[in-house]
Amino acid sequence: MFRIIIIICFSLILSIPAYSFEFKQNKDISVYEKINPAIVAVDSQLKDGLSCGTGCIIDKNGTILTSAHILEDGRDIIVTMSNGQDYKAKILKKFGEKKDIALLKISVPYELQTVKLGDSAKIKVGETVLAIGNPFGFNGTLTKGIISRIDYSKNRIQTDAAINPGSSGGPLLNTHGEIIGINQAIYNPDNNISNIGIGFAIPVNVIKEYMYEKDKSN
Fold first, then answer.
1. Of residues 69, 82, 119, 148, which has the active-site annotation?
2. pLDDT tens track for 14-42
3. Would you call 44 a catalytic residue per the annotation?
4. How many CB atoms within 10 Å of residue 137?
5. CATH among 2.40.10.10, 1.10.3300.10, 3.50.50.60, 3.40.190.10 for 38-105
6. 43, 44, 51, 100: which one is catalytic?
7. How confident is the model at residue 70 (pLDDT cuts 50, 70, 90)?
8. How far apart (Å, rounded) are the C-alpha atoms in residues 66 and 84?
9. CATH code for 120-212?
10. Active site residue 100
11. What global pTM score does this model have?
12. Contacts of 144 (CB under 8 A, 6+ apart)
């Protein structure tokens, strides 16, 4: 009887890591399925081509948070929803170059799925993060990594979650599906030949300060 008990207990211990992995995996899937409908592709028509990026719907009436550098001097801005529908967007507010944030607005006849702004003051190095974006036009791409570093002096979150051209303006999410940063750039020493796992996002608390401040000069 003693031997049987030992074997049963040992089997239960071995099963814990498998359960833990499955739980984390299912949680990531749940976050993606909940948040992806609130992620859009943003295309800005320039004089010499197309500037492409990502945006996050933060208001059910069609307000979209994205990166200002995607828009540049583009005249026609088209937002593509996760279901493939296209809408023409107007710029609500475009912040200064160093802030690299913009708010867009689309008009739709129904309420939209949104993504919640989190609190970047609570983030920790080593924390698991998810990124959703449209790298190279592959819409709705999910990548996963950790917070690798927090640069408080430059207001940048560093992550190894894969971020590539087209991901700018997309959300860096915590495991609860809240935006903790907006993906902005990658360390690019070889001119887009490879992704070396060093990406940067603007902390969401910095973004909140810009979004909710009274109109000021950039």
1. 69
2. 455 555 656 667 889 999 999 999 999 99
3. no
4. 12
5. 2.40.10.10
6. 100
7. very high
8. 18
9. 2.40.10.10
10. yes
11. 0.84
12. 28, 128, 129, 130, 131, 161
